[in-house]
Amino acid sequence: MKKLFAILTVVGVLTFSSVTTVSAQGAEAQTEQTAANSETAVEGTPMHQVLKKQFLDGGAIWMAPILLCLILGLAIVIERVLYLNLATTNTKKLLTNIENALSTGGIEAAKEVCCNTRGPVASIFYQGLSRYDEGVDVVEKSVVSYGSVQMGQLESGLSWISLFIALGPMLGFLGTVVGMIDAFNAIEIAGDVSPVLVASGIKIALLTTVAGLIVAIILQLFYNYLLSKVDGLVLSMEDASISLMDIITKYTKKQ
Hey, where are the domains in the chain? Predict the structure, then answer.
């Protein structure tokens, strides 16, 4: 997962660099085609060309950081989705296998079942079973303590997604303010209010705002999905841990 995140991060950085280069190369063209930029895209134009045009119209110096927030945010989302899906365990089947292993082979057999099962629930069970010789109370404390560690790992990365959700619109609003300042500066220099003078600044203001909001909306949807996934896994872990303690208590009474 870390390798995937690292690769996507590099892609984001390279995209940011290429966007900056495109911005520098297209600065002169943007100046000469101010009137053309205000027109709507011609019907039939490929979507990526339309997006590229809007990106350049919004000012790459402001749009590039917003795009970078989206790329890095989606990189973390992909890593978290894969991690959480791999962390999902059929707890009922695992508990049944542990109970059967305890009745046939004892604690060591139950630990072997946990070792052969992936996911945080199996890891928690293994930690608890490893402390069985110290008493049921120690097993329970071990399960609770290690459960908190696993919960922290499940929630890892969500704070970064939350950061990009907040940062995207903030960068967009920053571009909005700068665009309006440019518009008023043009009015001040010309000494007259003309739509042609203020159109460029206002367009930058609107496009950066829209881009920032789109980034926030996309990442917010994934963020809420991840939160619901984490909550489901945590509830499953807690319920399974209670069932494990019941199984261990019954096994202890039989000894």
Answer: 1-34+41-255
